[in-house]
Amino acid sequence: MAMTIDKQQTRAARELYDFDPDATTLTDIGWVDMKDFDYFLCGFRHTIGTSAVVYKIIANPASDGSGTDVVIKTGSAQPDAVGDYCWLETTAEEIADADAATGTARYVSMQVSVATGTDEGVVYYERGGGRKYDGLTADSIA
């Protein structure tokens, strides 16, 4: 039986981001809302360069990251060659525990830095669990 792409798109929201910072500072990749989701998975794949990568999941009460960041998890694997990749994941419960002081950090981002400003990569986000919706992931963005 054939499965349409929309079946998988109702179970998780997925996004891809280009990472070309032209810098070596930690960069927030993109902020996504964890409301109605149980988990967040992110990944980084090195596409240009060979420097070590620092990466973490952060949460924030503001949808644009302008509030105070809460570090949820920091990665330890080192994708330091073209084609290398790493994954990092967390749950809504872990985010709530890390932000127990205010309980307002519901937006998450992968924060990435590379040791050489010419390095580049691709970042993947997936949020899932919780309720099912139609069209969580766009068929294409042009």
What does this entry look like structurally?
It is a single chain. The chain is built from 2 helices and 9 strands. With 142 residues, the chain is mostly beta strands. The longest helix is centred in the last third of the chain and has 7 residues, at 92-98. It has a domain at 38-107. Strands 2, 3, 5, 6 and 8 form a 5-stranded antiparallel β-sheet that branches. A 4-stranded antiparallel β-sheet has the order 1-9-4-7.
What distinguishing features does this structure have?
single chain; about 140 residues; mainly beta; five-stranded antiparallel beta sheet; four-stranded antiparallel beta sheet; 2 helices
- Taking all residues together, what is the mean pLDDT? 89
Based on CA inertia axes, which overall geometry fits?
globular
Strand content: 35-45%
Helical segment count: 2
Alpha-carbon Rg, integer: 16 Å
SSE class: mainly beta
Low-confidence stretches: none
Element-by-element helix/strand order? HEEEEEEEHEE
Q: What is the share of helical residues?
A: under 10%
Rounded to the nearest angstrom, the distance between the terminal CA atoms is 30 Å
How many strand units? 9
The biggest beta sheet, please? 5 strands, antiparallel
